[in-house]
Amino acid sequence: MPTVSEQATQHGFAPLAIARIKGAQRANQIAIYLLYAAIIAFMVFGTIASIKMFHDSALLYRLFFNLPYALIALTIPITLYDALVIYRYRLSQASMVIMSIGVSAIILVGGLIFADTAWLGLSCWLGVAFLFKSNFKRFFDFLALQDELEDTEEVL
Questions:
Q1: How high is the mean pLDDT of the chain?
Q2: What pTM, to 2 d.p., does this model score?
Q3: Is 91 helix (H, G, I), strand (E, B) or coil?
Q4: Is the dihedral of CA 97, 98, 103, 106 positive or negative?
């Protein structure tokens, strides 16, 4: 049975770690699609609800008001998973991960408890998903650059 040091690694990362990070990146991409859907739903249903003919439509008001919140709220578990993967494999500084998740959670819970609103807290979760997207992109750009450097060293 091969030992850990004999297993193939990619720049110090085991293949299982790379697979988990790629899975988290795919999950983050789903979260970002949900965030875009929330923004589009807000714009479309807000525009339709502002038309005088639809001012009294409760359904349009609910779609305009609650659908974007629900779509953003669906991204929170995905973002938490991404945060755990980023923290576990040190793809970002631990303080950045803790601060982004902590501030978003505190603002969301504080807004719900003290101000009876969730818009500010949920808007923080928008930023966290995009922050993690850039972390994943930088990591895989780093791996691609290392592969490129190894290829040029082999040629020389």
A1: 89
A2: 0.85
A3: coil
A4: positive
Whether 22 and 139 have beta carbons less than 8 Å apart is answered as no
The identity of residue 40, as a single letter, is I
Do residues 5 and 117 lie in contact, with contact meaning Cβ atoms separated by under 8 Å? no
Looking at per-residue confidence, does 8 or 42 come out higher? 42
* Number of alpha helices (DSSP H) and beta strands (DSSP E) in the chain: 4, 0
Q: Count of alpha carbons within 13 Å of 88, Cβ hemisphere only?
A: 13
C-alpha torsion angle, residues 62, 65, 69, 71 (rounded to 10): 60
Q: Which amino acid is at 79?
A: T
Q: How far apart are CA 82 and CA 77, in angstroms?
A: 9
Assign 10 to helix, strand or coil.
strand
Q: What are the backbone dihedrals phi and psi of residue 57, each rounded to the nearest 5 degrees, phi first?
A: -80, 110
Contact 39, 68 (CB under 8 A): yes
- Token duo for residue 70: 């629900």
**Rounded Cα gap, residues 43 and 40, in angstroms:** 5
Beta-carbon contacts of residue 13 (< 8 Å; ≥ 6 apart): 21, 89, 143
